Amino acid sequence: MQNASTIHKATVIGAGAMGSGIAQVLAQAGVQVFLFDTKDEALDRAMSKLRGTMERLVEKGRLTSEEREGILGRIHPILYLREAAESDLVIEAIYESLEAKRSVFTLIDDVVRPDCILATNTSSLSIAAISSGVTHPERLIGLHFFNPAPLMPLVEIVPSLATDPAVVARCEAEVLRWGKVGVVAKDTPGFIVNRVARPFYAEALNILEEGIADVPTIDWAMTHLGGFRMGPFALMDLIGHDVNYTVTETVWTQ
Predict the structure, then answer these.
(1) CA gap 32, 72 in Å, rounded
(2) What residue segments make up the domains of the chain, in order of their start?
(3) Which of 12, 90, 146, 241 is 20 to 30 Å from 157 at the Cα level?
């Protein structure tokens, strides 16, 4: 693996909420980011959202106009994976499907340099299973950001048994440089946060189903009395019920 102290170029695969958020994090840290999607409209939406976010940060005095332009200038929307060839790091941030993620890494494996780190933003799937189709599984690792990526400080760093320890150490250092807090987790279903969170959502749904309390009351109790920043139902709405269901299914079936 390369010995450089920083990631200079990175590709983020998937221009949805997570992908665009990760692109923002990296660009704010000075990284040149290539944001890939297969659809022009997805890239247009992502760039429009990022411009709006940057503008609000300027209005709040958190960025200067020059800083805003610098950040946006470091995010390059692309439609072809060959433009990722010189990346130091590739982060996959598509939907939670083992087959889809394997397909992405099979494609990117033939495009990037041998010393490029491959990372998946999966929230629950096996890193070992995702890496099973790549030529060099030792360079693939989980980097699980939380939504919204620019605001949430935690990143779970998840190596498989095949991941090179040098890749783990490199990712720990880079996550700190991006202004995040990294925690190394074992390659188990749901890792740390999503595994702990399953009862948080499940018991809230049980309370609702049993008629003990309604949605506003449950969320109010957890935020005002329990000290949580968001209640379980508000958080499920933010994450997306489809995503949350997929994670729950993964945790309990594996």
Answers:
(1) 10
(2) 9-184, 193-253
(3) 241
pLDDT in tens, 204-227: 999 999 999 999 999 999 999 999
Catalytic residue among 8, 76, 136, 144: 144
Question: Nearest-CA neighbor of 242 among 13, 16, 2?
Answer: 16
- When the candidates are 3.50.50.60, 3.40.50.800, 3.40.190.10, 3.40.50.720, the CATH number that belongs to 9-184 is 3.40.50.720
pLDDT in tens, 152-173: 999 999 999 999 999 999 999 9
pTM of the model: 0.91
**pLDDT value, residue 69:** 97
Q: How many residues does the chain have?
A: 254
Cβ-based neighbour number of residue 2 at 10 Å = 13
User: Residue 28 above 50 pLDDT?
Assistant: yes
Is 71 within 8 Å of 27 (Cβ atoms)?
yes
Residue 30's region, left for phi above 0, alpha for psi from -120 to 50, else beta, is left
Residue carrying the six token digits 């360079």: 139
Rounded CA separation 95/231 (Å) = 24
Is 136 an annotated catalytic residue? no
pLDDT of residue 39: 96
